[in-house]
Every structure is written in structure tokens, then in C-alpha cells.
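Obj: model holo form, ligand = adenosine-5'-diphosphate.
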Amino acid sequence: MVAGFGDLTILHDVSLDVAVGKVTVLLGANGAGKTTLFRAITGLLPPRAGRIALFGEPIAGRAPHLIARAGIGHVPSGRELFPRMPVGVHLDLGARLCPPELRATLRERVLGLFPEIAERLNQYAGTLSGGEQQMVAIARALMTNPRVLLLDEPSAGLAPKVVLSVFQALAKLQDQGMSVLLAEQSMTFGLSVASRAYIIREGRIVLSGTPAELAAERSVVQAYLGA
Ligand SMILES: Nc1ncnc2c1ncn2[C@@H]1O[C@H](COP(=O)(O)OP(=O)(O)O)[C@@H](O)[C@H]1O
Ligand SMILES: [Mg+2]
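Output (holo C-alpha cells):
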């Protein structure tokens, strides 16, 4: 798949697979093209060429809300919450994309996954800690009832201990059969949850493998990540 802005090509023939029921990680330094790839998948920046398929169904070029309805949930970079809007209303916004008869069950399941936000439904999102805000962003995306969840750098700006709790939630989601594509800059965090990893550099996939394979080539991966 190829994508860019105007004459500027950012993603050059990027190709990857997200395994069903697994976490796949996209590792890349700042500016490598991770967010651009997510925006291409979610329809916010329609790709210039190539194919994007969801369980075999081509979705490239559709409007973002139709791609969301088809089953792609997006947790955007920087979370993009509304600081002066209650947590519960964020969940309702996500639920607008999911069939009405599913909403109550879904809400129960999502709040079961994040008990810490279940107690804060009436609180303004802006008053929560960074980790709690990340969980609200994930919960909002889950309320769309996705089949694949894209998570754009959920660890950004969080203390390592808080990252751990976000990643524990990810592991639980995977146990429930969710397919996840996770963008990360940190090799250690990324490889800790994933079953497969792709390294992106300057808009190209330069390496891929299992966490064990990549851990065996740690110095090469670190060089690609600019660390
Ligand atoms: N709206 C835009 N217009 C032009 N270039 C952009 C735009 N957004 C991002 N870029 C460029 O695309 C490249 C990839 O950015 P991005 O996808 O945000 O990387 P990452 O998410 O991996 O940090 C960078 O060189 C960035 O400057
Ligand atoms: Mg980004």
C-alpha cells in the first residue's frame, strides 16, 4: 500500500498482516510512518495505491465511518479525548457505531475490562490520570464493537508502571480473541505483548519476525529504531 500527502509519498509499498486473535506490533521511531499507516487503514488518509482487506473484504477508499462499521476500531495517537466531557459520554460516542441491540452487553464487557474507569463514568475525561485516559480511549474504540483494534502508541507519555497496566488490558483483550495492531517506539514494550512484529523506517517495512527472532537481532532492531 502507498500513501502520502499531495506530492509527498510517506508510505512506500507497505505490506503487513494482522493475525486473527493476536497482537501484531508495528515498531518504528518517531516520524517513521506509523500514524500515517493507521490513518490510511482507517480511511482518514485514503491510500494512493494498493489494497487493504478486512477478513478478505476490501475496504481501502471507503469513508472512515464505514470502515469503522466494517470492524476497525481506532485508538488515535495522543488519545484525542474531550477533556470537558464525561467518561460515560465518550463510551456513548463509540457505541453510536455499533448496533443498538449490542450496546448494553458491550458496555458491560468493556467496563469489566477497565474497572478503574467504571467508577469514573461521570467524571470529566480531562480530570483523569494519563493511564486512565488511555483506558478511556481504548474503551471508546471497543464500544464500536471492532474485529480489529488499532492502537497508536498507547504507552506515549505514561510511566512504565502505568504502561504495564495498559498492556495487561491488551493481553486480556487478546485472550478474548481480539485482533490488535499496536504501534510502538519501544522494542521492549512492543515485543512483550506481540506474537509478530514489523519494523517500519522511513515509510518502509525493513524487518519482520517473531519477538524471539527480533530479540536475537536486538542491535539491528535498535539501529532501525534509531536507539
Ligand atoms: N499532514 C502531513 N503533511 C505532510 N507530512 C506529514 C503529515 N503528517 C505526517 N507527515 C510526515 O509523515 C512522516 C511520518 O509521520 P507519522 O506517520 O506521524 O510517523 P510516526 O507516527 O511513526 O511518528 C513524517 O516525516 C511526518 O513529518
Ligand atoms: Mg505517530
